[in-house]
Amino acid sequence: MLDGLLTTFKDEITLKEIGWTCSTIFFNTLVTLAGYKLFQHGVIIFHLNFSVTELLADFLLLIVAMDFMMYVFHWAIHKLHALYRYHDLHHQYNNPTAVSLFVLHPVEVLGFGGLWLCLLTAIDFSIYAIILYLMFNVAMGIIGHLRKEFIPASVKNHTFFQWLANTGFHVDHHQYQQYNFGFYTKVWDRIFGTLK
């Protein structure tokens, strides 16, 4: 069984994907270092006291704010030809994988990272909410790039899940690029008429 998984993994992951993934990690590290420098100079401030109420409020604010900003950036990158040439790299994968999540041009990585740093400079968040959000962000990125929906249809059809992005939502975006620009939710796509 393990041999079969390794063979499948080896066949699906290319050296090109590994190279772009390393590039994405490198540029995300630069964004993190920039954030650290802003923190050192008091531009970014984190709250260290723990409160469940503050944690949840900050976590929800991070999701809503970043989902909106990333929706706008993602929509703009598709509509502006000068920017799309960078994003096209990611769209070379009509049938995305969890690794293709990290196949991003440095311009795109720095664009999303810039949005993140702008939000952190504008609002003081709980450090615990930030940690939770960062884990959530990676998990949602991986979920969006899986090939198979893992949420059972009985749960997926619940009203609550109709507002959340899922695997099929993002896979549809890779196949129909004029739709489904959201990252965590379908809210902005519903509001702006870009939901498939």
Descriptive overview:
This protein has nine helices and two strands. With 196 residues, it is mostly helical. The longest helix has 28 residues.
What order do the helices and strands come in, and which of them pair?
Elements: H1 2-12, H2 15-40, E1 46-47, H3 52-79, H4 81-87, H5 106-122, E2 125-126, H6 127-144, H7 153-156, H8 167-175, H9 187-192
Parallel strand pairs: 1-2
Helix pairs in contact: 2-5, 3-4, 3-5, 3-6
Query: DSSP helix count?
Result: 9
Stretches with pLDDT under 50, minimum 5 residues = 1-10
Mean pLDDT: 85
Count of distinct strands = 2
Largest sheet: 2 strands, parallel
- Bin the strand percentage: under 5%
| Rg (C-alpha, Å) | 18 Å
Q: Write the H/E string, N to C.
A: HHEHHHEHHHH
Quick recap of the structure?
With 196 residues, this protein is an all-alpha fold. It has helices spanning 2-12, 15-40, 52-79, 81-87, 106-122, 127-144, 153-156, 167-175, 187-192; strands at 46-47, 125-126.
Tags for this entry?
single chain; 196 residues; mainly alpha; two-stranded parallel sheet; 9 helices; 2 strands; globular
